[in-house]
Amino acid sequence: MDSAAQQGDRLGGHPKGLYYLSFTETWERFSFYGMSALLTLYMVKDLLPHHASEVVGLATLRGLIGFNGALSDIGFAAIVYGWYAGLVYFTPLIGGWVADRLLGAKRTVLIGVLLMSAGHLAMSFYATFLLALLLLILGSGFLKGNISAQVGALYPRADESMRSRGYTIFSTGINIGAASGPIVTGLVAAIYGWHTGFAVAAVLMLLALVTYILGQPHLADDRPARSQQEAAPPLTPEERKRVLVLLFVIFLTIPAEIAYPMVWSIGILWVDQYVNLATPLGTIPSSWFASMDSIGSILFAPVLMVLWGWQAKRNQEPASVTKQGIGTAIVGFAALMFAYSNWGVAGQHQVSALWAVAGWLVMGLGWMYYWPTTLAIVSKAAPPRLASTLMGVAFLSPFVAHVMAGWVGSYFDQMTPTTFWLMDAAIAAGGAALILMLRKPLQRGLETGLSA
Asked: Measured between alpha carbons, how far is 223 from 280 in angstroms, rounded to an integer?
């Protein structure tokens, strides 16, 4: 069947399967962001200065990346993080193909969870650092796009508003995990060491596996793999046009995906060097700031749900592409807050933590506007037999953007923090302007051939 919703399997107006998928992503994002929050700091403070010779293949990789000249540890760490984060978003294209053509989404997601569990465990040892990154990249590719596509399969294709709210709930689960992961792993790493923090992430991946298995009866039937694809008719002209417009809409998310994720790598280093982290109870770990944007997303999610519902009743809810433009503009504004907070501040640990927290929270608001909306757009506009593959294509935007962000981030220690964050804000502002200029023809193109 096309939708699990047809089974009357609902809770709070949404299919029950949505909540199992959301909780699975909560634990998966807990482990992923818990590890990612430590990654750049771990490389700059421990791995590169003290244990680089122990890592299998690291010297070769550094030679390849630094082919055009010597890189500082910060520059090398920024580029490694960028490629790692980027490839995490490239491999969903492979995972989508595997799900659509070979295994189906359910089995593919299960394999992804197991690979990620092995990757987090491998992070607990210096020698297997690069192997760990490879396992995490492959595992996330098998999981990420396919679980997002399964959310879309729970809703009727014509119900854009409810589908968008479903993805907002799903993204809230993502943000709960992303907010709590860095806090827990950062605290554990501060007390017991880096590798213990990574091991905690491995344990939480196993909870994701259990949650997903328990939710199987509430998910839409898995599509037949190879036989259905061979029997499927070619795309209609309307579907081909819709796919082309969809690809361009995905492309337009690249500026936001450069500017926003900068807080997860360079942002953490900036906090570690320039923000005053002292409190009456002691100095807080800089890695905790990796939770702040997710906390912002969680806080703003119910506000947006109420706002969009109120606007929908009055036929005033912004179109999906417009929401993308608004979100990208908000990301640029948050980067401006970082730039302003460091204006005229030359010494380390002098920037008020309130400015940093505020900027991170606003980043979370921007993300809630543009990324869940992008997933909802793909879910609605993609031809059904290409749903998982095109959801994987959607993650090519963060792939390209994160790789570019790694290159941009490598210049952090070559300019003032204010100049760096102004550059980050300008990238988002340019993207927002382009989206908002083209929003009307793009929205019409996405609706070509779809029933009202």
From this structure: 56
Q: How far is CA 166 from CA 113, 183, 321, in A?
A: 23, 27, 17
How would you classify the pairing of strands 278-279 and 282-283?
A: antiparallel
CA 17 – CA 22 distance, rounded (Å): 8
Phi, psi at 156, each rounded to 5°: -60, 140
Residue 203 belongs to what domain range? Answer: 11-224+236-446
5 within domain boundaries = no
Rounded Cα distance between 397 and 371, Å, is 11
57: left (phi > 0), else alpha (psi -120 to 50), else beta? left
What pLDDT, in 10s, does the model give residues 288-316? 888 888 889 888 988 998 998 898 888 88
Give the Cα separation of 428 and 391 in Å (integer).
23
For the chain, the first-to-last Cα distance in angstroms comes to 21
Q: Which long-range contacts (CB under 8 A, 24 or more apart) does 1-10 make?
A: 1/220, 1/221, 2/153, 2/156, 2/157, 2/220, 2/384, 3/153, 3/154, 3/155, 3/156, 3/220, 4/153, 4/154, 4/218, 4/219, 4/220, 4/221, 5/154, 5/155, 5/156, 9/218
The CATH number that applies at residue 123 is 1.20.1250.20
Asked if the structure places residue 43 within a domain, the reply is: yes
Instruction: Give the Cα separation of 155 and 231 in Å (integer).
Output: 24
Give domain status of residue 1, yes or no: no
Per residue in 191-231, pLDDT tens?
A: 888 888 888 888 888 888 888 888 888 776 665 444 444 55
Three-class SS of 267-329: HHHHHHHHECCEECCEECCHHHHHHHHHHHHHHHHHHHHHHHHHHHHCCCCCCHHHHHHHHHH
- Could you read off the pLDDT of 325-366 as tens digits, one per residue? 999 999 999 999 999 999 988 778 889 999 999 999 999 999
Q: How many residues does the chain have?
A: 452
pTM recorded for the entire structure = 0.75
Q: Which amino acid is at 268?
A: I
Number of domains in the chain: 1
**Run of H or E including 54:** none
pLDDT value of position 452: 45
| Token duo for residue 87 | 């490839």
Is 63 a domain residue? yes
Pairing, β 14-15 against β 10-11? antiparallel
